[in-house]
Amino acid sequence: MATQIFQNSYLTRTEILKPLQKMAGEQLKWPAGSQFVVAGKFYQQTTDLTINLTSLTANTLYMVYAVLSGGVITGLTYSTNVNSVGPVGASGWKLIGAFYANGGLSGASTPISYGSLVNITGTPTTIPIEFWGEQSNFGPAEQHFRWQRNGNRIFIDAYVRAAGSTTNPVTWKIPSGLLYDVSSSGLGMTAGYTEIGRATYDNQIGNLATGSCLLVTNATRLVNTYSQAQVAGFGGQWGGNQPNNATWALNHDYDAKCSYPVAGWSNTPLVDL
């Protein structure tokens, strides 16, 4: 419970917000020791507060709020609503942190769980967050898909070791909901594809090659890709109106690092939204 500090002219109104902490399981803790402003009055948080994270949506940003009721902080809640709107049903609140849900485990669309804390002051950034790449046309022996936010840009690191062979287009999804901002400039366009990074191919016997990491315009996958709305994938070079398909063979490694501006993201601090 928070103890109200009465609003007197001689008080030094220095705000101190303790950072959220990730606990075991799907739980966040806000440790005691913060003093903060809600509805123009100072409050001091004298006990730890925790919140359990449930029913999360993949790759979604959630704001964490201390909620005011009856003159005290009654607990924590999280919401997709930005700070200027606040949590549903609350008459007063204080934004104390934020987090992203992950995008499922590499190789599985579920479960969706906690991914990373996000700073609420300064440029929004995260640590790497796992997501489900769902590659096409062959089963991987090993795979890792992770994304990270830095301001208005996403950075994707994808790795696949092939468990079979194919010359068909091989693609994998970008994180669901994090679509390329088509209004952005400065990215080269060729025949409906955007080059957003580089891919490396290693056949394990000394053959190391690089190619383009391509994003299908207005889609949700990368090339080499299979179609669904926005695409992320490795591979090939340009050939006419399509990138040439790379040959994927057993136990060959494919590693791609790419980045693009995300629709709806900015460098604005979350506390100012």
Describe the structure.
- With 273 residues, the chain is an all-beta fold.
- The protein folds into two domains: 2-101, Tail fiber receptor-binding protein; 128-261, Sandwich (Adenovirus Type 5 Fiber Protein (Receptor Binding Domain)).
- Helix content is 0%, strand content 44%.
- It is built from no helices and 22 strands.
- It has strands at residues 2-5, 21-23, 27-30, 35-38, 41-45, 49-52, 61-69, 72-79, 92-101, 114-118, 129-130, 140-150, 153-162, 171-173, 189-190, 193-202, 208-216, 221-223, 231-232, 238-239, 242-243, 253-261.
- The strands form five sheets. Strands 11, 12, 13, 14, 15, 16, 17, 18, 19 and 22 form a ten-stranded antiparallel sheet that branches.
- A hairpin with a 2-residue loop joins strand 20 and strand 21.
- The two termini are 27 Å apart.
Output the keywords.
four-stranded antiparallel beta sheet; single chain; 273 residues; mainly beta; Tail fiber receptor-binding protein; ten-stranded antiparallel beta sheet; Adenovirus Type 5 Fiber Protein (Receptor Binding Domain); 0% helix; disordered N terminus
